[in-house]
Amino acid sequence: MRVVGLISGGKDSIWNLHYCRHFGHELACVANLAPPEGIDELDSYMYQTVASDLISAIAEALGVPLVRRGIAGGPKGKRSPACSPQGG
Fold first, then answer.
1. Of 38, 44, 56, 70, whose CA is between 20 and 30 Å from 88?
2. Is 32 exposed, middle or buried (0-12, 13-18, 19+ CB in 10 A)?
3. With bands split at pLDDT 50, 70 and 90, how would you rate the model's confidence at 85?
4. Hey, which bits of the chain come out as E strands?
5. pLDDT digit string (tens) for 28-60?
6. Angle at Cα 24 formed by Cα 62 and Cα 33, nearest 5°?
């Protein structure tokens, strides 16, 4: 099966690519959701952006194309009861 690897630059996304190849899947390309232009690190509620400057080098080392799009938007709310601290 041909797969797209969503990578953040962290070890977990790279391990996932290794695991896919181990089971015979073909890596078609890698994809990344990057911080907006001019921002190196984003305090994101959902995405890791710390190693985003290494993403193009990772794609090159893997020998696959990189599809990259900027992160846009933000959370609709930050006061979810599911995320409230619990006593105890």
1. 44
2. buried
3. low
4. 2-6, 26-34, 66-70
5. 999 988 777 766 666 555 566 566 778 899 999
6. 45
Helix or strand holding residue 11 (H, E): helix 11-22
Burial 42-53 (b: 16+ CB within 10 A, else e): beeeeebbebbe
Distance (Å, rounded) from C-alpha 8 to C-alpha 23?
21
Compute the distance between CA of residue 48 and CA of residue 34 in angstroms, rounded to an integer: 9
Answer whether residue 84 shows pLDDT above 70.
no
Alpha-carbon radius of gyration of the chain:
16
